[in-house]
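Checklist before submission:
- one chain only
- standard amino acids only
- sequence pasted in full

Submission:
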Amino acid sequence: MQIITDVQEMQARCLAAREAGKRIAFVPTMGYLHHGHRSLLDEGRKRGDLLVLSIFVNPTQFGQGEDFTSYPRDLTGDAALAEESGVDWIFAPEARDMYPPGYATYVDVAGFTDTLCGRSRPGHFRGVTTVVSKLFLIVQPHVALFGRKDFQQLAVIKRMTLDLNLPVEIVGMPIIREADGLAMSSRNVYLSPAQRAQALCLVDALRQAIGSARRGETSAAHLIAVARERIEREPEAQVDYIQICHQLTLEDQATVDRDSVMLLAVKVGNTRLIDNARLFEEA
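Returned file contents:
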């Protein structure tokens, strides 16, 4: 396994690999890897001759007052997990090389980014789609893997890839959870023990909604109200949003059906957590 930091070297290597007939599988991350990331790498290893992992804490997707400077970083630990997963190349560029002086080009996906995290974090998805499109052009992957915990991000990237005719297969992978159900996240490290226990309100709320939907409740407003009541029982939990949307369009639904997904964003203390579940699947 090799760690490559130079943008031009990375692109040249990947173009040469494609010319040689290698199929490139790609997992883009911001690092501080956990078993959720490992599931993406394991699947990528199956789908490509060459497995590339990027580690880049992207400054353009963080808003003012967000945790860019404090976002957890551990390249040494990440490299060890990556090597165990069979990664061939880690691409770990510097921000100054991804966004050199005078940088002026951004990618925006309209509509899909006006709701959910896009409403709460203005400009966030412009940063995500810009960096992912840049990474696609540098790494030249045949297939790229993303986790479904960031459900909106996955939908936005699928839309961008389709609209820009990018020759990349986008694969969404299941949420990986801790033994108690909490969705794995690099930000979980911020939680105190008491907050970690309170954070289970997210998965509890999703499970209650799934149970009610399966028992025949069709009102999205009712399911949202029940989820909010469960979350707001926790002293340090503050709801950012709870929405029930169509899984393909992300449009809000008044009546739930087989395409419904509940999406949550909740701050526990100062830590913002997201989770989601299709209402007719297990959370």
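Reviewer check: Residues 186-278 form a domain with the Pantoate--beta-alanine Ligase; Chain: A,domain 2 fold (CATH 3.30.1300.10).
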